[in-house]
Amino acid sequence: QVRLQESGPGLVKPSQTLSLTCTVSGGSITTNYFYWSWIRQPPGKGLEWIGYIYDSDSTYYSPSLKSRTSISRDTSKNQFTLQLSSVTPEDTAVYYCARSFHNPRVDGRSWSLYDVRGQGTQVTVSS
Asked: Which of 6, 15, 57, 70 has the most neighbouring CB atoms within 10 Å?
């Protein structure tokens, strides 16, 4: 059974870089045909898809966040990471990592797309 677990600081100061790690257990992050995504949910709002890493380190980011986002993976640790730079209080959200078989560009904001997801981690941007 594949499981995902997010980890990282719960509090980040404005203008700093938010860094989160998703650790995958029970399966390999190098398995073909799966998209590994980051999604977030700001308080009182719907899901916002951030981006994914796929196959041989191909990445794709939401156009609204592309300039500030980087997703990478460490196959030796079976992890993938999110870096979001120049954060503001508007980046405060619960952040999730998730896996899908279908491309999240279709509708990454729907939980029905994903077969596995982490429990989420709260990140607050505040001075």
From this structure: 6
